Amino acid sequence: MADTDFMATAKRTSSRPTRNPEETRNRLIDAFIELSSEFGAASVTLQKTAARAKVPFATAHYHFGGDFMALQLAALDQVGKRAQVYVDAELDRPAKSSHDKNPLERYVRSNFRWAREYPKSASAWLYLYYLLSLSEKHRPAHFDFLEVARARIKKLIFESIGMEFYAAQTVQANLVIRLHDCLVGGFVLALTDPDKGAGEKHEDLTWLTIDSLLKKA
After folding, report:
1. Where are the domains of the chain?
2. Contacts for 86 with CB less than 8 Å, ≥ 6 apart
3. What class is the 8-216 domain?
4. Is the dihedral of CA 81, 82, 87, 88 positive or negative?
5. Residues 16-60 pLDDT 10s
6. DSSP per-residue codes, the chain
7. pLDDT, position 95
8. Among 56, 77, 193, 197, which is least packed, fewest CB within 10 Å?
9. Which pTM does this prediction carry?
């Protein structure tokens, strides 16, 4: 699949004006995601974002109230929703093999596949995830994101236990945190390792680690 990265629509429409506020807002978010993947989120400004989206700076300021962190949060939310749509589709499709039937394994691997198919969005997510974790003002939103991600992992653990991939056990909060940290760490390595085939390598290593932690719990 070509790396359209959900940007094709924004690019096709960027040459014509729009009076739809939601469309304009999404174009700004897509422009920010694209610039972040190219130069790093820390180097992107509202002015650069407006220029890439081909909208007046005053319009960009109107949509985000001059709060650049609000644009970063909106972009992180947008990327997260797009990734969730992809992962949900992967979880809903028929299993292709025996190991593909494990709900937790499918979830872990689908996150890595999403990153390989949409590297621009994945790179932007990495930058934004880090930057927002440093913001005292937006730390509550960051914690909310962590809680949602960990709750989903916990749910999938119970599904995998119910399908007898793992022995019945009490799923402790510390275990869920460790598994999520392992997933995020492997994801970061997959995105930053320049070696050919690094994505698949870190995907396998991450899953083997998570699988081992669950079997030892």
Report:
1. 8-216
2. 110, 113, 114, 117, 118
3. mainly alpha
4. positive
5. 444 588 899 999 999 999 998 888 878 889 999 999 999 999 999
6. ----TT-HHHHHHTTS----HHHHHHHHHHHHHHHHHHH-GGG--HHHHHHHHT--HHHHHHHHTT-HHHHHHHHHHHHHHHHHHHHHHHHHSPPSSSGGG-HHHHHHHHHHHHHHH-HHHHHHHHHHHHHHHT-TTTHHHHHHHHHHHHHHHHHHHHHHHHTTSS------HHHHHHHHHHHHHHHHHHHH--STTHHHHHHHHHHHHHHHHHHH-
7. 81
8. 197
9. 0.81
The position carrying tokens 């807002």 is: 25
Q: Please provide the average confidence, as pLDDT, over all residues in the chain.
A: 86
Cα 31 to chain centroid distance, Å, stands at 17
In the block, residue with structure tokens 């109230």: 65
